[in-house]
Amino acid sequence: MSSFLQSLLDPKKSWLASLHMKALTTRLRKYGLRYDDLYDPYYDLDIKEALNRLPREIVDARNQRLKRAMDLSMKHEYLPEDLQKMQTPFRSYLQDMLALVKKERAEREALGALPLYQRTIP
């Protein structure tokens, strides 16, 4: 059953998933965002920890993209067409670090230790 569900969600195999990915790409390009920009660090502590571990330039670029998107949204405008074509919405910058943080959290849980962001210094 899981392989069937996985094939439904794979954009290379399912036309519905590829249609959704195409619509999402178009929407993200209009505002100049990347898919990883949509993750909220206040919702998930793993994402917050992954963002803290990334280099400062990458986090600053993320914040700049989010500010630009909010500004465009408030003005009810989109990026110019030539800038939209330059955007790469599915170029990931957070997934590798997020996978590392989740792996470390799972390892800590297996060992019975507290997560890194819940520890206190005596």
UniProtKB/TrEMBL annotation:
It comes from the Eukaryota. Signal peptide: none annotated. This is Cytochrome b-c1 complex subunit 7. It comes from Gossypium arboreum (Tree cotton). The keyword Membrane applies. Coiled coil: none annotated. Component of the ubiquinol-cytochrome c oxidoreductase (cytochrome b-c1 complex, complex III, CIII), a multisubunit enzyme composed of 10 subunits. The complex is composed of 3 respiratory subunits cytochrome b (MT-CYB), cytochrome c1 (CYC1-1 or CYC1-2) and Rieske protein (UCR1-1 or UCR1-2), 2 core protein subunits MPPalpha1 (or MPPalpha2) and MPPB, and 5 low-molecular weight protein subunits QCR7-1 (or QCR7-2), UCRQ-1 (or UCRQ-2), QCR9, UCRY and probably QCR6-1 (or QCR6-2). Belongs to the UQCRB/QCR7 family. It is found in: Mitochondrion inner membrane. GO terms for biological process: mitochondrial electron transport, ubiquinol to cytochrome c. GO terms for cellular component: mitochondrial inner membrane; respiratory chain complex III. It is a peripheral membrane protein. The keyword Translocase does not apply. Keywords: Electron transport, Membrane, Mitochondrion, Mitochondrion inner membrane, Respiratory chain, Transport. Component of the ubiquinol-cytochrome c oxidoreductase, a multisubunit transmembrane complex that is part of the mitochondrial electron transport chain which drives oxidative phosphorylation.
